[in-house]
Amino acid sequence: MVQMRADVLVVGGGLGGVAAALAAARAGRSVILTEEFDWLGGQLTSQAVPPDEHSWIEQFGATASYRALRTGIRDYYRRHYPLTERSRAWSDLNPGAGWVSRVCHEPRVAVAVIEQMLAPFLGSGRLRVLQPYRPVAAQTDGDRVVGVTVAHRDRDERIDLVAPYVLDATETGELLPLTGTEYVTGFESQADTGEPSAPADAQPMNMQAVSVCFALDHVDGDHTIERPANYDFWRDYKPDFWGDRLLSWRSPHPRTLEIVERSFTPNPDDDPLAVNADQRLNPGDGNLWTFRRIAARRNFTDGAYDSDITLVNWPMIDYFEGPVIDVPNASWHLSKARELSYSVLYWMQTEAPRPDGGTGFPGLRLRGDVTGSRDGLAQAPYIRESRRIRAEYTVVEQDLSLAVRGEHGAVAYPDSIGVGMYRIDLHPSTGGDNYIDVGSCPFEIPLGALIPQRVENLLPAGKNIGTTHITNGSYRLHPVEWNVGEVAGLLADFCLARGESPRAVRGTPRLLADFQDRLTAAGVELRWPQVAGY
């Protein structure tokens, strides 16, 4: 079997993995980065989820390299796309004029910018990217990970990867069971965490819904897909708490649980510059078409786009029939999640109520070319909740809940290694729970949440840090995942340079101060200015 070695091994090429590889390579380390799908970027690209970001993202509250990614996306549009002069001059260009983010964009643009950011290190040979490979085994020696074996997705080929530091940036924490690293899944109990929103008993198999997203436009003609085999089941499916069939415009409001009806108007003739994508003021999901729109045709010269393009990550595609982690039938559940997404599309094309009193939008066209897939859907499912390490410090609801902390703000951690902000936003779960949506204070990321209780050289670099089922709802979004990955890469470099362990860095005031200085020099923000949560 082929063996490859590096200073730092990053398994998983989502946002956290890319940020980790970039940070370690910039620090002069040799890096191997693996990814099982065709695109690097994870939730931003292969999962086709436009950025979910806080209200101050244009001013502060993210690392410098994450800002470079966002700036790079806007610059890519200005260099390569036929923008109108008005849109080209828009300093905070929002290509899709979506309401969910100030920089809604097509996934492949983020792929191109990520590749540009990594290109110098690929050219020098400091970084090697292995695609499409997934981890299948790991070798350990006591409390250390010795190596990881990855297998090619499409052919019978395996590679042994060896590095003194191994970073798990997979979407579901795949290395944790492979390495024997202690972890949790699902709901912790209130007795364990003291969280106001936690259940009395732990529910390890109760996890957030996954979603298989897809892109649509709306053009002349009939673009109705073949009727899905189990369409009748999904058309008639009515969860107890939903207030209607899942395939409808009606669903619970995440914050109030009131049953509300959303509108759906393809290609509204709206002004892109009039969109104010600030979820503090407006969640933006009133018209589903513009909610996660990723290309607003009025941003581009006449005729460049026949239609807007919108990204479907809407309530009705949430699949909560069963978990996809630590179950023998995970692939079956993922196939059912894809079937649900096709059924939602078919329902919209054939039966969905229209504002004019008719039914169906046959002009809706599935845009697999936008998501880079043969089957028309996103390449990968959107995974909201990962396995999470049993960490030296676990972030709990009362650390950041606006209802608990109020004017005091989130807990200030002495070992802060970054910042983030998002409401505690939990989608319906596999245990039959409705939305849990709790206001949040702008929060910090503690180094203790990145350090496993036992294992010495494995670091989480994504959604698998020491949060709970509840606080994962705030820590799972794009800027925080990037921040966590970037810090994991810098921590591996710092430990290699100093001959110290991550545990020693956190536990030794002098080392912690030096590491935090290193983060600040790299453009990682450790504290928030005085701002109020929402």
From TrEMBL:
Pfam families: FAD_oxidored. GO terms for biological process: NAD+ biosynthetic process. GO terms for molecular function: L-aspartate oxidase activity. This is FAD dependent oxidoreductase. It comes from Micromonospora echinofusca. The lineage of its organism: Bacteria, Bacillati, Actinomycetota, Actinomycetes, Micromonosporales.
